[in-house]
Amino acid sequence: MRYKWSVFTVFYPIGGENFLIKNFLTGAVAILDTMKPLNIWLDDQVLPLPKSFDILSGSNGFIVPESKDEFDEYNKSFLFKRFSQANLFTLHLLPTMKCQLDCHYCFERGIRRQGIMTDSVLNRFVCWLERYMEINPEVSSLKCVLFGGEPLLAKQLVDNALSKLKILADKKRKEYWTEVTTNGLLLDSNMARMLKQYNL
Which of 26, 101, 136, 189 has its CA 20 to 30 A from that of 86? Predict the structure, then answer.
């Protein structure tokens, strides 16, 4: 059997020959001290297997069989989740598009990043969500994913928004939790305590 790098694996150089790699299908993350032996092996695939092969293949999914249709697998997984989790409502909240970093790999690089969501927009959104839950009583779980920019730059708005969403979820007797996509620079013990109360 022949192998290839997964199309869902991304490579980020972190100095010297070292790379941070992530597979966005499996969520696996690893650090490689060099890519050369693996790339050479993938070109000719002559035994013996590289010593990191077992870690990079299998459930981690960095390296997959050439015959594997990864997009078909992703579509099946997406449809399964969509139909088996129809009672889950996931919303992505972007408190701000600002970010204190300028990472060269960021897909938002070059976008004009200004402003923080206003209280007026937040209140209209919460009203819309309450109406949505009334119209769709089958929704039993509410998940809020904080995204951005760097969402934690808008700490006060995040606290206010999560408080309103938690109150709404409790009022409607819905399970509630929070996820956050952050660069982590502002994630201190106070921020962690604040987020924890919203089931992060």
Answer: 26
Residue indicated by tokens 């987020």? 195
How far is Cα 136 from Cα 156, in angstroms, rounded to an integer? 30
Q: What is the pLDDT of residues 39-95, one digit of tens each?
A: 889 998 887 888 888 899 999 999 999 999 998 888 887 777 766 666 888 999 999
Rounded to an integer, what distance in angstroms lies between the CA atom of residue 142 and that of residue 133? Answer: 10
Size of the chain in residues = 200
| Rounded to 5°, angle at Cα 99 from 93 and 105 | 100
Identity at 143, one-letter amino acid code:
K
CATH number for 86-196 (one of 3.20.20.70, 3.60.15.10, 3.40.190.170, 2.60.120.280): it is 3.20.20.70
Helix (H, G, I), strand (E, B) or coil at 177: strand
- Are the beta carbons of 165 and 126 closer than 8 angstroms? yes
Look up the pTM and report it.
Answer: 0.58
The CA distance from 21 to 4, in Å, is: 15
